Amino acid sequence: MKTTLLGHPRIGRQRELKKACEAFWSGKINQTELLNTAKEIKKQNWLQQQDLGVDLIPSNDFSFYDQVLDACLTFGCIPKRYNNIDKSNYLELYFAMARGLQKDNIDVTAMEMTKWFDTNYHYIVPEFEKEQTFHFFSNKIIEEYKEALTLGIKTKPVLIGPVTFLLQGKEKESGFHRLDLLDKLLPVYFEVIERLENLGAEYIQFDEPCLALNLSEKEQQAITKTYNKIAKKFPALKVFLANYFDCYGENLNIALQLPVDTLHLDLVRCPLQLNDILESEHFNPKTKLSLGVVDGRNIWKNDFETSIKIIEKASKKLDPENLWIASSCSLLHTPYDLDLETTLEPEIKQWLAFTKQKIEEIVALKHLLKADNDGYLHLFEENKLANLTKKSSKLIHNDSVKTRISNLKSSDSHRESTFSTRQVLQKQALHLPLFPTTTIGSFPQTKEVRSWRLKFKKGILSQQEYNTLIAKEIEDSIRFQEEIGLDVLVHGEFERNDMVEYFGEKLNGFAFSSYGWVQSYGSRCVKPPILFGDVSRENPMTVKWSEYAQSLTDIPVKGMLTGPVTILQWSFVRNDQPRDVTCNQIALAIRDEVTDLEKAGLKIIQIDEPAIREGLPLREEEWKNYLNWAVKAFRISASGVQNQTQIHTHMCYSEFNDIIASISDMDADVITIETSRSEMELLDVFVDFKYPNEIGPGVYDIHSPRVPSLEEIENLLTKAKNVLPKEHIWVNPDCGLKTRDWPETKDALKNLVTAAKNLRSQTLELV
């Protein structure tokens, strides 16, 4: 047997890539310095895998921003609006597509961004036209293969498969289906393959996670066509076909008949598929199987006993030389190294495995399955003991939490009255104008603000000193919002490190790493909490600063909370009980906070749920169950307040088309969504469905450093007004402003307020 990974994290052990990219964007380092940082990260990743004993190491799993964006550049799939950017300046073009660009006489918007399947990783969405052409533009995959060769490492280059690449993109005009472009795209793949083969590449990994979806007959035929053509043109190539995040499902027979060398299985998400494959009449025993038994999505230690049983089952049907032991998916979604953690509770730490430890697990499993495994038996015993102590740990279980869950009633997930009744009462209570303006919650967390938090944690600042600084920052932000004329204010969240981590720190059942960073998008890294036990809230979490902010002004201030589904999705979640039970525990904790905010005088409370679409299972037959418990959890968190209290929720970078009825069932009084990158395209589904509640379509792309013009915002608002009832429209950015700088934030928000006032005046004149 041999070992492999599907991909490795690329941000660096200490987030070196994040820091280098942001320094490059701000002009503090030059292109050469950025490229050198990237080169060193790749080198360290490859050498670590080699030193730990990985047999087939991936390349082209590195990216400055996103692997789908890399593929767009590789295949020359560059939207025409970037034609004025010098194509020889690769990084300027690359980051313009990712982040937009305002420079000299160039002002271009970024490409759309959304979630990669059911993860919190965001990818850049390819854009396709009817007459789309492709050509080999970026040499990145070739150069990285050659880089590894200079270290003496013959890698397995990783490419997003042609069908997944097309399906994850969007048609930018009508009259064609993006799969119609397959025949134009494949020749560029052939050129890439040919160049890699000429350099000596033996294996190429094609990622086709679309095989975990309910594919149409046309989509299945595209898969068959693609890999038959590759096999015919490159008979010596060993295709490593990777599906992950779920089973092959009804695509299994198609996959089993493909002329590929190796078929990868995600046996963490779908362990039962191995039986289906081994017993299928279509399975060719000469096909190698890559057994993804080590979890690439979570951080819990592998259960060697269970994994060995799975691998042994496969080895009874296949020659061991035809088996790979692998991660379930790319380890992109896990932190670098548990060895860096010195403050974690030892009992909890022994249950965990980060990327380095997962690689060690993969290699250990290989050796434990050998006859001469004496040198590894101690690892088996240590693994077994750690998993046993986790099952019986007193840290995990809380009887009072379990009792409260068992006592939940149907009425706990319903507001007192329907939205139509609440809307009237809320308008009377809030006295908001037409097209009310607000922001999503956070304001820029400057270097200075972050330094206060660090100094407070290190004991350099006292609690009183820290509180004084935060109070002044909140007051300044309130005065700024009043000055520019926002209608609903926020306190700015200056005391918060992250929208999930902050709450986890104040809830029982969570633990925290110091270096457990994972990439969310671009240079944005998050440090997910470790949700290991029953969740409860002992004390208010946000009331102090929200109440203080409201005391500074007569204008309504929103209380800002993160919803139960998002806290669940953006944490490393315990794997010893159903996720819906854990989610309801969080929902009850948030419900307590919501009612406390109302008692403190907050008339508007926002419960953010950007991850509710992200949590949707990939297979449609599993949607109903998930949506039922996810919507119920949100409603539990929001339903303890009076009719006059207005509940907002926020969702960003999600496709709502398939779940709009469930979004409506959440029964939030106001929903704010991302629409600026898609130019209000996402509103179509709310219009077609006749969404009954109020909507704030984002008119300012906060993931780009560019400042939207007044005209640009007015055009977007006009589009919204043409399709939505004017009484239902709010005006706001796409998302929180935490990652932006103050100068661009102020300019953009001034334009936003002016645009709303202009639209208000025009509408009232017509009336």
UniProtKB/TrEMBL annotation:
NCBIfam families: met_syn_B12ind (TIGR01371), PRK05222.1 (NF003556)
Binding-site positions, L-methionine: 440-442, 493, 608
UniProt keyword Repeat, yes or no: yes
HAMAP family the UniProt entry points to: Meth_synth (MF_00172)
Residues given in the record as Zn(2+) 1 binding sites: 650, 652, 665, 674, 735
Cofactor: record remark: Binds 2 Zn(2+) ions per subunit.
Catalytic activity: 5-methyltetrahydropteroyltri-L-glutamate + L-homocysteine = tetrahydropteroyltri-L-glutamate + L-methionine
Species the sequence originates in: Algibacter lectus
Keywords annotated in UniProt: Amino-acid biosynthesis, Metal-binding, Methionine biosynthesis, Methyltransferase, Repeat, Transferase, Zinc
Recorded metabolic or biological pathway in which this protein acts: Amino-acid biosynthesis; L-methionine biosynthesis via de novo pathway; L-methionine from L-homocysteine (MetE route): step 1/1
Database matches in InterPro entries: Cbl-indep_Met_Synth_N (IPR013215), Cobalamin-indep_Met_synthase (IPR006276), Met_Synth_C/arc (IPR002629), UROD/MetE-like_sf (IPR038071)
Catalytic residues, chain numbering: 703 (proton donor)
Cofactor: Zn(2+)
Cobalamin-independent methionine synthase MetE N-terminal domain ranges (all copies): 3-317
One GO biological process term: L-methionine biosynthetic process
Annotated protein name in UniProt: 5-methyltetrahydropteroyltriglutamate--homocysteine methyltransferase
